[in-house]
Amino acid sequence: MDEAALREMLDAVRSGEMTSDDAVAVLRRLPFADLGFARVDHHRTLRLGMAETVYAPGKTPEQCAAIVAELLAQPGSSPVILSRADDEQATAALAANPGGARTRATVVWRPAAERSERVVVVTAGTADQPVADECACTLAAHGFRPVRISDVGVAGLHRILDALEELAAADAVVVVAGMEGALASVVGGLTAAPVVAVPTSVGYGASLAGVTALLSMLASCASGITVVGIDNGFGAACAVVRLLPSAVTTRV
């Protein structure tokens, strides 16, 4: 349940359109619903402005479908996201809950209304695209329409310089890079927007499956860069949502 749905329900009780007993029945499922194998957090949107996301690895297809159904059944318009799903999990969740849109391993139901902020997702190489796709799908679920700038790694520095106008106009930038992760520092020195860096596991030998890029980004000389975990495109998108909170979200 999100803030708008809660206000609507309280207004309905006040106007007599809903009985107090009906409202109590709805609120009884807050702050969570116990499905036996999962406790689905319906209170998260009220606390954080973001609904709980269903992380598919380790869950059966049936469990993924049931958790998605529980989230969709509650009042509100918050997006519902199934992340890192394999074909069987995604197929089961979509069959039980029609209307979702799948991009690679991410499935989204009920995406938020479009927002005006401009978010740019930059990738160093084509091999980084799956992580960038996860980030872009999560951003889109929360109402952003991310601009993609692809294959502009530092091995060809002139390529990122060609995108200076897009970077300057951004409200936030996500940089997705493997190898040595140097692109995050370059972008961090070219834009005043918040920069969220995502190290990927792409790279040879001493890249150490993303550890080198992670340490490089953490040690960046471009001040104020936010760094998330290796291959965590989802986490980068959530960082942007927190950095650019909706104007309608009430802060108390």
The radius of gyration is: 20 Å
Ends apart, CA distance between termini? 18 Å
Q: Tell me the series of helices and strands, N- to C-terminal.
A: HHEEHEHEHEEEHEHHEHEHEH
> What composes the largest sheet?
5 strands, parallel
What class do helices, strands and sheet pairing give? alpha/beta
Secondary structure tally: strands: 11
Mean pLDDT: 90
Q: Helix proportion of residues, in percent?
A: 25-40%
Poorly predicted runs: 247-252
Strand order of the largest sheet: 8-7-9-10-11
Hey, roughly how much beta strand do the residues contain? 15-25%
* Number of alpha- plus pi-helical segments: 11
Shape: globular
Q: How would you portray this structure in words?
A:
By secondary structure, this protein is an alpha/beta fold. The chain has helices spanning 3-15, 20-27, 44-48, 61-73, 87-96, 129-141, 158-161, 164-168, 183-188, 211-218, 233-243; strands spanning 32-34, 39-41, 54-55, 80-83, 101-103, 106-109, 119-123, 147-149, 172-177, 195-199, 226-227. The strands form three sheets. It has a five-stranded parallel β-sheet with strand order 8-7-9-10-11. It has a four-stranded mixed β-sheet with strand order 3-4-6-5, sandwiched between helices. A two-stranded antiparallel sheet has the order 1-2. The longest helix is centred in the first third of the chain and has 13 residues, at 3-15. Mean pLDDT is 90; it is low at 247-252.
Helices, strands, pairings?
Blueprint: H1 3-15, H2 20-27, E1 32-34, E2 39-41, H3 44-48, E3 54-55, H4 61-73, E4 80-83, H5 87-96, E5 101-103, E6 106-109, E7 119-123, H6 129-141, E8 147-149, H7 158-161, H8 164-168, E9 172-177, H9 183-188, E10 195-199, H10 211-218, E11 226-227, H11 233-243
Parallel strand pairs: 3-4, 7-8, 7-9, 9-10, 10-11
Antiparallel strand pairs: 1-2, 4-6, 5-6
Helix pairs in contact: 4-5, 6-11
